[in-house]
Design goal:
Layout lengths: L1 H21 L4 H10 L5 H22 L8 H27 L2 E4 L2 E4 H28 L17 E3 L7 E3 H18 L4 H12 L3 H11 L1
Antiparallel strand pairs: 1-2, 3-4
Length: 217
């Protein structure tokens, strides 16, 4: 019991550092490490990771409370789809738990554990490939405008963090839906996806994206 508690403290410390530096809640790290290193069933790791994110992001926002960098309007627009997506993701995880165990390689593994870890692998690999490609493409080009600025689906909203540029509300809402789904399914706050998306897809400055990401998480 004591080694597990100490392991949990170490994982939480690393997640807190990541939150303070990059504005991500650390769920992408907490959930799989709780399962792989400490042996928690994946659904329990998802719930524990989600709960821990509340503390890390609240602390991060407290230390950044005077920065005035958070785009609350962006957070509100994203939140509608985000809340619905979180419900759908949690419902998917519940259905996976009901499938029980699967036979794999002569042994058994919980369906919820297998499928959620596979989704983790796909999501994190895609993020790495996307950010690597974007970094190489935009090197020396300064701040990019963002892909979402080219998706002109009315109605629109203007955002101060983008210098008054307007973005499609439906595009942002559906993006929030995807983030929320991953939160409910994997126990990630969405920051690991939201932060680079705010920079590369929305076109937000990095410091503003960090604080806005913490608000959303």
């Amino acid at each position: 019991m004591i080694p597990r508690l100490l392991g949990g403290l170490a994982i939480s410390l690393v997640a807190g550092v990541l939150t303070g530096l990059f504005g991500v809640g650390g769920g992408f790290l907490i959930t799989p490490t709780l399962h792989i290193l400490l042996g928690l069933p994946m659904p329990l790791a998802v719930g524990t990771g989600t709960l821990n994110i509340v503390g890390t992001t609240t602390s991060s926002l407290w230390w950044r409370r005077t920065s005035n960098l958070a785009d609350l309007k962006m957070a509100v627009v994203l939140f509608g789809g985000n809340a619905l997506g979180a419900y759908l993701g949690a419902d998917t995880l519940h259905r996976l738990r009901q499938q029980g165990d699967l036979t794999l390689g002569g042994g058994t593994v919980a369906a919820a554990d297998l499928y959620t870890l596979l989704v983790y692998l796909v999501v994190l690999s895609a993020i790495f490939a996307w950010m690597f490609a974007e970094t190489r493409r935009s090197a020396g080009q300064g701040q990019t405008q963002g892909l979402f600025a080219r998706l002109r689906i009315p109605p629109y909203a203007a955002f101060d963090s983008l210098g008054g540029r307007s973005l499609s509300i439906p595009v942002l809402s559906y993006f929030g839906l995807i983030l929320g789904y991953l939160t409910g399914l994997l126990g990630v706050g969405g920051g690991v996806i939201l932060l680079p998306a705010l920079v590369y897809l929305v076109g937000m400055r990095t410091h503003a994206a960090v604080v806005t990401s913490s608000v959303m998480v």
